[in-house]
């Protein structure tokens, strides 16, 4: 199959592209290499996927006429690109343009692909709001520009299923961790600062936050399992993540255990919009996709530490 992966130089998109290529598909990846975090890391990810045979194209989904830039013989689209996370350095315009406008452009391109079987939108548990413990039909209450714009993007995609113009689904991911995790996120930051003997800035009260910390390999298992299931997943929202919850404090302790050190912590003011609890309800994913994530927190951290040491020490 001919597969388009957006956000291919990012954390999760790069893993998904590699997996799809390894499964024998012909994968084209696009990315605008935004400077939201160190572009060198994105180049490293892009190089790794290119080495596996993925064709990587530099393209900004906000501005480009995609039909002129991309082949239209695409069978599947996996849409990862986004302005991710909650960050003071990201403006409303960043979220609006990268999450909503870019998705609209991609949908317009998808509608021009005659052989498209499925458009897979990658969404987030942030759509649920401060507590994300619910099944997919629970009313969304996003508490950040990120969550609001990802909800809008999801609905733009699913609208096309409702109009019967495109077969699509949206997968809501929960706290993904593992090799290539974004540098501003908790585990990469803990490993980096811990190994350098520096202090980790902990948002006040966040040590008690609960998270479905899900290994990226388990997330990719769920994502690629939609291939061939278009009749089952069309128009559906599906949560993907582990049902096992850990506090942030337990996450810190897992990194300390793997590194064999104690990490110095500095408490900084709370982050507005930060989720208090995420626990993936995956009853629907089990039913429709036979989804069954198994990697433990400690195993995930071990993989991530290995990746960090191989690439940055
Ligand atoms: N990381 C998580 O824990 C997590 C959890 C839930 C959902 N998600 C979702 O998964 C997806 C991937 O997240 P990630 O953590 O890999 O983020 P990431 O920032 O590492 O990857 C996103 C990639 O998209 C690219 N991009 C951004 N705007 C673009 C544009 N306009 N045109 C082309 N490329 C563009 C970026 O350069 C980046 O390489 C996002 O949609 C995010 O909302 C992530």
Quick description:
Helices cover 40% and strands 18% of the residues. With 313 residues, the protein is of the alpha/beta class.
Q: Mind explaining what this structure looks like?
A:
By secondary structure, the protein is of the alpha/beta class. The protein contains eleven helices and 15 strands. It has a seven-stranded parallel sheet with strand order 3-2-1-4-5-7-12, with helices on both faces. A two-stranded parallel ribbon has the order 6-15. A two-stranded parallel sheet has the order 8-11. Helix 1 links the parallel strand 1 and strand 2. The radius of gyration is 19 Å and the shape is globular. The termini are far apart. The relative contact order is 0.14. The model has no long low-confidence stretch (mean pLDDT 97).
Q: Globular, elongated, flat, extended or rod-shaped: what is the shape?
A: globular
Question: Cofactors and ligands present?
Answer: nicotinamide-adenine-dinucleotide
The CATH class of the largest domain is identified as Alpha Beta
C-alpha Rg (nearest Å): 19 Å
- The name of the CATH superfamily of the largest domain reads NAD(P)-binding Rossmann-like Domain
Query: Main β-sheet, in a few words?
Result: 7 strands, parallel
Broad structural category:
alpha/beta
Number of helices: 11
Which sequence of strands runs across the widest sheet? 3-2-1-4-5-7-12
**Strand-residue proportion:** 15-25%
How much helix is in the residues? 25-40%
- Kindly report the CATH topology of the largest domain: Rossmann fold
CATH architecture classification name of the largest domain: 3-Layer(aba) Sandwich
**Total strand segments:** 15
What's the overall average pLDDT, rounded?
97
């Amino acid at each position: 199959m001919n597969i388009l992966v957006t956000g291919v130089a990012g954390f999760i998109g790069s893993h998904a592209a590699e997996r799809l290529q390894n499964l024998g598909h012909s994968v084209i990846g696009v990315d605008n290499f935004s400077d939201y975090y160190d572009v060198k890391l994105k180049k490293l990810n892009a190089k790794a996927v290119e080495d596996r045979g993925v064709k990587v194209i530099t393209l900004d989904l906000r501005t480009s006429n995609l039909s002129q830039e991309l082949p239209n013989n695409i069978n599947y689209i996996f849409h990862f690109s986004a302005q991710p996370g909650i960050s003071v350095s990201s403006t409303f315009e960043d979220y609006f343009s990268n999450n909503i406008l870019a998705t609209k452009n991609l949908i317009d391109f998808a509608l021009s692909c005659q052989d498209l079987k499925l458009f897979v939108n990658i969404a987030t548990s942030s759509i649920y709001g401060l507590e994300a413990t619910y099944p997919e039909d629970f009313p969304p209450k996003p508490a950040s520009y990120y969550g609001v714009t990802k909800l809008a993007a999801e609905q733009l995609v699913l609208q096309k299923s409702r109009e019967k113009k495109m077969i699509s689904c949206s997968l809501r991911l929960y706290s993904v961790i593992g090799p290539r995790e974004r540098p501003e996120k908790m585990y990469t930051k803990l490993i980096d600062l811990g190994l350098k003997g520096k202090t980790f800035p902990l948002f006040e009260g966040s040590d008690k936050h609960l998270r479905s910390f899900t290994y990226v390999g388990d997330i990719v298992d769920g994502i690629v399992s939609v291939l061939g299931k278009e009749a089952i997943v069309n128009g559906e929202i599906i949560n993907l993540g582990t049902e096992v919850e850990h506090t942030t404090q337990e996450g810190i302790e897992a990194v300390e255990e793997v590194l064999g050190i104690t990490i110095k912590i500095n408490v900084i003011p709370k982050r507005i919009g930060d989720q208090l609890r995420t626990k993936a309800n995956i009853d629907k994913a089990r039913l429709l996709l036979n989804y069954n994530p198994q990697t433990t927190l400690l195993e995930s951290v071990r993989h991530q530490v290995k990746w960090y040491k191989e690439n940055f020490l």
